[in-house]
């Protein structure tokens, strides 16, 4: 099985919409991190010019990673500057700590 990680950074106010869209498509698991950063747009009212966003990571079967990325893009998009980005990277292996085994195809769900 080939696994990829979809990492998205987007406006924290879009989190509920992104979560709902992923759950609607059968994605059961994701990890969230609060992040601050600076891209094309920056917060000129803030002393360090950093913007608060959410970083989300979703592990998926390779053939589903692009579709998951598109779901996130559609749900996070509001046609504003500095909305964030999404990347997809390969994962060599993924182990579940609870049973000390590698993840399998059946561990990842997604439907169109």
Key terms:
single chain, 112 residues, alpha+beta, four-stranded antiparallel β-sheet, two-stranded antiparallel sheet, 35% strand
Provide structural commentary.
Helices cover 22% and strands 35% of the residues. The strands form 2 sheets. The protein has a 4-stranded antiparallel beta sheet, covered by helices on one side. Strands 5-6 form a two-stranded antiparallel ribbon. It contains 2 helices and 6 strands; from the N terminus they run E-H-E-E-H-E-E-E. Helix 1 packs antiparallel against helix 2. The radius of gyration is 15 Å and the shape is globular. It is an alpha+beta fold. The mean pLDDT is 89. Strand 5 and strand 6 form a beta hairpin.
Give the number of DSSP strands: 6
**Main sheet makeup:** 4 strands, antiparallel
Helix and strand run: EHEEHEEE
Query: Which term fits the overall shape?
Result: globular
**Percent of residues in β-strands:** 25-35%
Compute the average pLDDT: 89
Low-confidence stretches: none
Helical percentage: 10-25%
Question: What is the gist of this entry?
Answer:
The protein is an alpha+beta fold and 112 residues long. The chain has helices at 15-24, 62-76; strands at 3-11, 31-37, 51-61, 84-91, 95-96, 101-102.
Give a topology summary.
Layout: E1 3-11, H1 15-24, E2 31-37, E3 51-61, H2 62-76, E4 84-91, E5 95-96, E6 101-102
Antiparallel strand pairs: 1-3, 1-4, 2-3, 5-6
Helix pairs in contact: 1-2
């Amino acid at each position: 099985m080939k696994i990829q990680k979809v990492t998205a950074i987007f406006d924290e106010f879009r989190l509920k919409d992104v979560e709902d869209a992923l759950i609607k498509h059968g994605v059961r698991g994701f990890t969230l991190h609060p992040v601050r950063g600076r891209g094309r747009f920056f917060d000129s009212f803030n002393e360090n010019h950093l913007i608060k966003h959410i970083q989300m990571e979703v592990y998926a079967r390779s053939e589903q990673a692009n579709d998951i990325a598109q779901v996130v893009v559609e749900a996070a998009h509001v046609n504003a500057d500095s909305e964030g980005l999404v990347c997809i990277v390969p994962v060599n292996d993924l182990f579940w700590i609870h049973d000390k085994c590698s993840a399998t195809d059946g561990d990842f769900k997604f439907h169109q």
